[in-house]
Design brief:
The complex is a heterodimer of chains A (647) and B (354). Chain A has 647 residues and is mainly beta. Helices cover 5% and strands 58% of the residues of chain A. Chain A has a 22-stranded antiparallel β-barrel. A five-stranded mixed β-sheet of chain A has the order 1-6-7-4-5. Chain B has a four-stranded antiparallel β-sheet with strand order 3-2-1-30. Chain B has a four-stranded antiparallel β-sheet with strand order 4-5-6-7, with no helix packed on it. A four-stranded antiparallel β-sheet of chain B has the order 10-11-12-13, with no helix packed on it. The N terminus of chain B is likely disordered. Classes of the chains: A mainly beta (647), B mainly beta (354). Chains A and B meet through strand 24 and strand 25 of A and helix 1 and strand 9 of B.
Chain lengths: 647, 354
Amino acid sequence: MSIRLTYCLFSILVGSSCLFGQGDPTELDSVVVNQRTSILNTPVSIDKIRLERRLATDVGQLMSLFTGVQTKSYGGLGGMKTVTFRSLGAGHVSVVSDHFALSLTQSGQADLGQIPIDFINNLLLVGYDPISINYPIHSKLAGQIIAMETRHLTKVEKFEANIGTQLGSFGQLDAHAFVSRRFSKWQVAASLKGRRFDGNYPFTYMNGQTKTKTSRTNGDLVDAFGTASVSYFISPKQKLHATYSGAYYNKGLPGAVVFYNETANQRLFGNNHLITLRHLGSSKRFIGSSGVSFQQSELNYVDSNYFNTMGYLHSRFISQESTGNSQWRYHSPSDSLFVLLGGGVRYEQLFSDVFSTPPTRFSTDLISSIKWLWKGDFSAQLGFQDIQDIRPHQTKRTTVLLPSCEWKIFKKGLSFIAGYRYTVRQPSFNELYYNQVGNDKLVPEKAQLAYTTFGYYKEFGNETRWSYQGAVQPFYVHAIDKILAIPTKNLFIWSIQNIGKSDAYGTEVRQLVSYRKNRFTTSFRLQYTFQYTLDLSDPNSSTYRDVLSYSPLHAGTAELNAEFSNWGASLLLTYQGERYALNQNIPSNLLEDFVLLDLSFFYKLSWRDHQLTTRLAINNLTNNYYSYIRYFLMPGTNIAFRLSYDF
Amino acid sequence: MIFRVLFISILAVTVLGCKKKKPDTETPAPTTLSHGLLVLNEGLFNHNNSSLSWINTNDHTIGNSFFEEKTNRGLGDTGNDLKRYGGKIYVVVNISSTVEILDAITGNSLQQISMIHNGTPKQPRSITFYGSKAYVTCYDGYVDVIDTLSLSVTQRIAVGSNPEGLAVSNGKLYVANSGGLNYPNVDSTVSVVDLTTHQEIQRITVGNNPGSLCVDSEGDVYVISRGNYSTIPSRMHRINPVNDTKEFTFSFDASGMTRMNDKLLISYYDYTTSTSQIGLFDALTEQLSIPNYISMAGITTLYGVTYSSVTDKIYCADANGFSNTGFLHLFSSAGVFERTYNVGLNPSKVLAFE
């Protein structure tokens, strides 16, 4: 198997670099429909300017800025953060950083709390982007992509560097540095980031009718991230890009607040390594991308209060993933027809003492897409996935076809989009094999998604001072064979079952008004998600047609920004509606809604090519005690101060 | 056209957004405990939603916030045992690591005992009584001795790993050492503790993963070893309390026992098929006289069986899939169904009051 995989990966790279040796060049990454109507487009992006306003320390803290996304945050800084999108669980979300998907081999879901934002230029939420070559094929076939483009991808003139530090409440201290240097056809870049956090923040919770004040314990965090990249510009239209990324983390797991028992002594520590090599090239009619990657993640879980014979529990997991991926896109002379073909392979293994035989999976992904600019913009994508789960006693093979299509019309500022997608998510290794919990009879979870978008864009006044963008996006999601953990033996022994079936109806609303005059700019952005998700698993169940747990009917943000000369301020209001902690919609399972108010300021001092930026953020201004997940209490009012120097 | 659809969408959001909450039909807790049932609902791990339900057996009204109304605070996380001894009710709460003690007449709180030792929660599981002492198994490998007058822990008795069920016979305490946290290398012994010296005097090997313990009218001790939930079956064993030896292993499946006069109600939940059964075991003849004593029709997840000599009724707790509020099904001692009550999340134990 490993020889076969190595051959595949080698072929992908060599084949790709030979294909673009001649012919007239076209622009690399040239598919941009209309930059000005960004709010109406899919994917939806958050640019560096918006990212920096929040003084967030990880990507998970920013996900509420997207519509349709529900964040599940298990605590503040350092706490695990996952997302669901339009009722589809975290397993449907692929996280892509600089064109390579982060490995989800073990748990099947990414912890967005472990991804720093300091070097991200653009954060995107991508649902359907069939002719893009910027995402691996298996990510394009996933339900949703959270994509990050970092400074390592940016071509510099000669030299760019940045250093900075951020201090904050509850013992937060972090520092970061970035440097990028161009040498003729070569460009090298390096970034480094370290964080520490005491995490002992105070909070108040209601125990019955009794208000209790206490502090979070065991919430400390130390982690470090580093990336080194080398780009070689073979020709104006061919580029090789190689990276190594490493990360280390060691953190307490504070867990849920348990009445009368404030002890928690579980820890997580580990490290991640990612090596990538990507070739990007274009010729007169083609553009292509091919890449290979290897990832290894080590995760250690330690519980020093575990009552086994040893007196503690230490579980160690090492996951490895090797991938190869190649996609080519053709465009017609009139740029009215695009055709994309691609293929990829993945080989995943998970090593641990708890597995007698390491779980192994070999996957093949194929994709073909077309985009035709006739009476609008029609596109379709057909994916094929072949997955071989090599199990101790047998090899289970699953093949699926994944069709998607979308039709867009843009006319005089008005836009209309209608789309359909079919996606599946494979059960993770944990879900298949982990101790008594795993269930190797699981089948993939399947979902069908239909959506429309109505958008409008207009500029007003002289010199286009005012602009308005608005979009309303109704959607419907039907999911079957949902993979859920349920207690089947007793309350302490859960197992994973394919029992879920759900419907989700909803509407996302995005509105943006902006004004610009001389050195003054201001904008108001409103994002709202209405989502009605129904449990249809079992007509005889107490929860039949009840709203799914942690699916608020209403959620949204309102963001007001103003900048004048070198000064700026931003106010963010976040609302999360009532939701249920369990699927049964009874008062005792109901979680209160909450409103958060965050305020931030910045001042920039520039001279020549140097820029010094100071930022101050006051988060949760009204000192609300709230939680996304029941009894995982979030911090009250907290402050962060950031100093950043670019040169 | 586009604006018409847009308008309809916004209207749909507004209308659908006004979903009504289901009404709360809670019945207030009584001032004195009589003519009713007190039900312990375990709740779910890390949800702090363990609760006590009070069922008025005269008018069949139900209140699921008994403890909270009496104390203005929550019971905590994962209540595992509920027993009455003398004038007090004892509630063992596992994850919160507390033993809550209530007045058996009013239900008011008398004491909360924190079961945390040197900063480590002891994770109490089950309770039984002898003389002026209460004995609580703790998952850290001890049985805690609580003085029922001072309501404080006076001693810790070391036993096997992860002890669960316990019972008293012939002046000795029998403790099932499950070793569940060493899975798959679980324990298979029952510790015997001399109740005079409070010392472990012997360990009896019975079978993998011992859990429930029960004493019949003749003083014989029965223990269930739960196997590994797949290839090793769960079995009931009889221990002679005179010589402390395992005398017999019965060949039928069993996961729980409840004494009913000279009989034992043997419950069994099949994890593979999600089906359950309750048989009647004659402890005098030591025969499973009626394998299907109670009809399981209408019971989704059998989670506990209680017999009350006060009411001469059998109560079957139904966890209803574990993550939904459960039911208490009431049967006559002859096994005839009488009625069902909707109670809290994962009901397991019942106390009946005249």
